[in-house]
Design goal:
227 residues; alpha+beta; Cyclin A, domain 1; SH3 type barrels; 2 domains; five-stranded antiparallel β-sheet
């Protein structure tokens, strides 16, 4: 998807503001949103097969640019809950209006220590993405091969940055297999070889590039084609 979220290489946004000693959450509500999303996602298929990223990337461009990180999480969750029938748009708007008119209204709470511990365990659980080689899956490229990033325009989520499409790079490393996470037809889903690909800065940015700089991107095999 060529959407506003794919901001790599775009101009006009100024330098990145690096905040020293940045807190985990800047405001209380951000932690609440994180907790709500994590809890719901651990107990319900609220985002469906497309995942939360697809909902985030479909936020209207003007709203996306004006929203903070956790505002995007909240907007995506609201849309997913309505889309999958967990609540209606009318219910959401009525509840929002009620709190807007009476901001001091006490928010309902439900204590569930067991659920709390399960959510914490899910957050801390490490789930490796890499899979061992499958004899039935051949590897198309080897270290040192010159490749070109394909121009792919998917209707949904993709991990292939827009600014890298059509650019030529070199295979630097071959990882194990990983399930592709793009919004692709069911026939194209499943595990693929993943490569680390080096792109020279001048190939990407032309005369504006810094000297002797390279960019390494991990890419699924279906993103690549031979040169």
């Amino acid at each position: 998807m060529n959407g506003i979220h794919d901001m790599g290489g775009m101009h006009g946004f100024g330098p990145i503001d690096i905040e020293e000693d940045e807190p985990v959450f800047h405001q209380l509500w951000e932690g609440r949103v994180y907790g709500i999303v994590t809890t719901i996602r651990g107990n319900h298929e609220v985002y469906g097969t497309d995942g939360s990223r697809s909902f985030i990337e479909n936020i209207p461009p003007d709203q996306y640019l004006a929203s903070s990180y956790y505002e995007k999480w909240m907007l995506a969750l609201e849309t997913a809950l309505v889309a999958n029938g967990f609540l209606s748009q009318e219910e959401l708007e009525a509840r929002t209006l009620a709190f807007r008119e009476t901001p001091n209204t006490e928010v309902p709470r439900r204590e569930d220590p067991e659920a709390t511990q399960q959510v914490i365990a899910n957050i801390r659980m490490r789930t490796p993405m890499a899979k061992n080689p499958d004899p039935g899956i051949s590897v198309a490229f080897q270290v040192g091969d010159t490749i070109r990033a394909r121009k792919i325009h998917l209707p949904g989520h993709s991990r292939l940055p827009r600014y890298i499409q059509g650019k030529v790079g070199t295979i630097e490393k071959l990882y194990k297999l990983q399930d592709i996470q793009d919004h692709v037809p069911e026939s194209e889903q499943g595990a693929q070889p993943v490569y680390s690909v080096r792109f020279e800065a001048q190939e990407l940015w032309g005369a504006a590039a810094e000297a002797n700089q390279s960019l390494y991107i991990d890419m699924w095999e279906s993103y690549l084609e031979s040169v």
